[in-house]
Amino acid sequence: MSSVPPSIANLRGAVDLSSLVNRPAPGAPAGPGAAGTPGASAPGGASGAAVEVPSLVLDGSDANFSAILDLSSTVPVIVVLWSPRSPASEQLTVSVGSLVGAYEGRLLLVRVDVDQNPQLAAAFQAQTVPTTAAIVGGRPVPLFTGTVDEVEMRDVFDQVLQLAAQSGVAGTAAVAGGAAPAEEPAEPPLPPLHAEAYDAIERGDYEAAAQAYRTAIAQDPRDSMAVAGLAQVSLLARLQGKTAGEIRDAAGLNPTDVQAQLDVADLDLSGGHIDDAFDRLLALFPTCDQDGKNLIRTRLVEYFEVVGATDPRVVAARRRLTALLY
Q: What is the CATH topology of the domain spanning 192-325?
């Protein structure tokens, strides 16, 4: 389900974001105070330094991430790479945001939608969502993939603060104007079976989540959110206990093995590489026997539910699949 390193101190610098950051030319506005980026009132990370931000939870993008790195020189930044296609990753951003708030400005949360920010997804080597990392003094630190419970999460964040103190990054973040972070409008409560599925996903029980979604579909076959949720949970369950390296090695060694290629397509889709997943299976389809074609067609239909029927990539892939079928 997830992996948490025993000591994050050994992982400093394991990811290189330098190629992503476009620093402004000398004399140009720079840093977190630049237009369109989180504002800052004080540079540097000395103990007691303060940085002013619009909220303790920010949205990071390929365009503004140099400002996020600047913020990390004053206060450690937790980064969650997520996707609206993944209920588990959406729920994790909520959980992390709540816990970050409990640290009262000693940590910031930056959410990165991997579908909208492919450069950041690649820079953080996010093979699956959710993926969580930290940035301390401009240096990224991998933390964990998947979901973890609050006790584990708090332990990891405490380690981040220890590492930050060792690196001289011991400032705090204060919400601009001294106001509490603006709360998002309350969402209507989930239907009971959807809530049951979300709770199961949170604890890594994908079979229980799938059963809840199946029951919801049986009660209302038009419940498109349950259909998409079931497809997403099935994807998570198939990837559970497997590593990206093992999956890609198996696919490379067995280019005509349908199951090996399905596994790597799952990995691509979970990491936001949607076109790669579609192309892999559609290219393999004509070479397979009927059983293999049935497996690929079924998996592609499931992917269409995960990504969304109106997504242009789904429309194009569905058209290609139809041409291959008929």
A: 1.25.40
